[in-house]
Amino acid sequence: MSENKISRRKFLANAAALSSVLAVPSFIMGAGSSCSSPAPKKRDARIIGANGRVDMAMVGIGNRGKDVIKEFDKTGLCNVVALCDVDMGAEHTQEIMSMFPGVPQFRDFRKMFDKMADKIDAVMVATPDHSHFPICMAAMKLGIHVYVEKPLARTFYECELLMQAEKEYNVITQMGNQGHSEANYFQFKAWKDAGIIKDVTAVTAHMNNERRWHSWNPKMTGYPKGEPVPADMDWDTWLAASHYHDYNHDYHNGQWRCWYDFGMGALGDWGAHILDTVHEFLHLGLPTEINPLYLKDHNRFFYPMSSTIVFKFPERENMPPLDITWYDGLDNIPQVPEGYGVSEIDPNIPTVAGGKLQPAKLNPGKEIYSETLTFKGGSHGSTLSIIPDAKAKEMESKLPEVPASPSNHYANFLLACMGKEKPRSPFSISGPLSQVFCLGVIGQWMGEKLVFDRETKQIVNNPLANQLLWGAVPRDGWADYYKI
Q1: Residue of 315, 336, 338 lying closest to 325 (CA atoms)
Q2: 154: Cβ–Cβ under 8 A, 6 or more apart, which residues?
Q3: Cβ distance 467 to 21 under 8 Å?
Q4: E strands, 66-168, in order
Q5: Which of 23, 243, 391, 408 has fewest C-beta within 10 Å?
Q6: Where are the beta strands (DSSP E) in 10-139?
Q7: Interval 342-395: pLDDT, tens
Q8: Mean pLDDT by 10 residues, the chain (484 residues)
Q9: DSSP per-residue codes, 194-261
Q10: Rg of the chain over CA atoms, in angstroms?
Q11: What is the side-by-side order of every strand in the sheet holding 78-84?
Q12: Which residues, at least 6 apart from 232, have a Cβ–Cβ distance to it below 8 Å?
């Protein structure tokens, strides 16, 4: 076995080693054991949609999942054959339940697959970050195609295993960075192929909107106290493979994104929407260094109020070394380059909102610096522009024609399941992108520079940080999901 091929035995050995480290907080601890129940029976993945539709199960039907299901339904390319949500019947799940009356409903994805695997061609996963992995792995082992919202998974080696499983089980996969099927994707590719985007040495990425945890006390010394579990909720399944927490409303309905135990913070939430084309078309792969330069109100439970993180990527394929600098937080707005524009987005000009003086906000986006050109871009599908205006006019006649997208991200996945298109953000592409964010999160938690070996996929300057690549030992009954 190569060093880059991670086995279940190595995963469990490395994760278990965390329990011997003194003063390690609970999110990297766990009581694990091997699962005594048999692994799902593998079936061959198949090209489906002979009747023009893909039979889909939807896992996570409230909040974000509700929007994703509606988008899939709009394509006219799928039948919804199962609905699954640990909070089935709660207010935020009612709309989707009413849209698909008579469709079988489940609170536990394992029971859904046990009963209906032979009736499901593909699954949509829009659950909290920490539960992406076992749901996706269970589906792929059954030969079921997978669409999962970003980020791909919560830990580096969960992403690694999902990429291995994609190959092993020969399934169609797609991560939900929807901009990968919109204008920015096709423009970036066309400009890169035409030599307009070349010799990039630096990228600034920023997401300075308010986050859910910004009102919390960064000096907290423990997790929230337990509360009664809602009557309709399957809390044990919600926890998935993570170690046990008593239910609290501040873990649920999007609050999970705030906690290292369950979510990926601002970086995991927005990074894929801002940096996806930069990462793919500049062939970045994995960084060699992750350096958190600024972490405001750093603590070991939830994400900093503000973060500045530098990711260093080496020279590759005749392209120069490149640094990505990530900024989040209301008080952590980067300086913008000449020609970017001023007005309300100037970080030096405060604005008045609701009678209070507040710092000006910079729209989520990026600046790309090459040896000859500077580009300004936003998030999701928004296109790039060359700045300043004088340079843009000079380059106007040299810009190539950009093709229109033949399908949106949802239709692209379904057409790929039918064998009619290739998925634009399969795990082989979205996995390394998600791993960059996993490394950034480890840097945020550790609060110090990390040195990463791209060949062995190890953090070489900090043993504890290296163990965090694996995360916690899975809870009882969940370890077999880490076996391919």
Answers
A1: 336
A2: 129, 130, 132, 133, 262, 263, 264, 268, 438, 471
A3: yes
A4: 78-84, 105-106, 122-125, 145-148
A5: 23
A6: 54-59, 78-84, 105-106, 122-125
A7: 544 444 544 444 444 455 568 899 999 999 999 999 999 999 999 999 999 999
A8: 49 50 41 38 56 94 96 97 96 96 98 97 98 98 97 97 97 97 97 97 96 95 95 95 95 96 97 98 98 97 98 95 96 89 51 48 91 95 96 96 97 96 98 98 98 97 95 91 92
A9: TTSS-SEEEEEEEE-S--GGGGS-TT--SPPPP-PPPTT--HHHHHTTSPP----GGGSTTGGGGBTT
A10: 22
A11: 105-106, 78-84, 54-59, 122-125, 145-148, 173-175
A12: 87, 88, 89, 90
The tokens describing 211, both together, are 């986050």
Contact 235, 85 (CB under 8 A): no
State the pLDDT at residue 49.
62
pLDDT on residue 317: 87
**H or E element at residue 309:** strand 306-313
Over residues 208-257, the pLDDT tens digits come to 999 999 999 999 999 999 999 999 899 999 999 999 999 999 999 999 99
Spatial neighbors of 44 by CB under 8 A, at least 6 apart, are 143, 170
Under DSSP, the state recorded for 39 is: P
Pairing assessment for the beta strands 145-148 and 122-125 based on DSSP bridges = parallel
385-393, long-range: CB < 8 A, 24+ apart:
387/337, 387/338, 387/339, 387/340, 388/338, 388/339, 389/339, 390/339, 391/339
Give the CA distances from residue 300 to residues 309, 317, 341, in Å, rounded to whole numbers and listed in that order.
Answer: 17, 38, 38
Residue with tokens 């991670």: 6
Question: Is 85:60 a contact under the CB 8 Å cutoff?
Answer: yes
Cβ count within 10 A of residue 166: 19
Q: Which residue has the tokens 């999901």?
A: 481
Among 315, 299, 264, residue whose Cα is nearest residue 435: 264
Model pTM greater than 0.85?
yes
Question: Which tokens hold the place of 462?
Answer: 């900090």
